[in-house]
Design goal:
Blueprint lengths: L1 H6 L9 E5 L2 H6 L8 E6 L14 E2 L1 E2 L2 E2 L3 H9 L8
Length: about 90
């Protein structure tokens, strides 16, 4: 609601990547301690994560808090404002 009042529209942060849940196979291939986390598939060439993330990176935490799956990552990113660094 605050975004609507201040900006006239809802503003949502984004990281500019396509992602998928880590699978058991991913965990084995990448030597992960558990089947948990979010695998980066692609990074937008002009997106906010250029230079910070690469394809096949695995995101396991945001701001020190564990991330186990895609919806959890999306919820944690949504807690931030556009332009914030996480």
């Amino acid at each position: 609601m605050e975004d609507l009042v201040e900006f006239g529209r809802v503003q949502r942060p984004r990281i500019g990547v396509s992602i998928q849940d880590v699978t058991a196979e991913d965990a084995e291939v990448y030597g992960l301690p558990s089947v948990s986390g979010v695998m980066v598939q692609t990074v937008e060439t002009d997106g906010p994560s250029v230079g910070a993330l690469e394809a096949e990176d695995v995101i396991v935490a945001i701001d020190g808090e564990p991330v186990g799956y895609v919806a959890e990552l999306q919820a944690k990113i949504a807690e931030h404002r556009p332009g914030e660094t996480v």
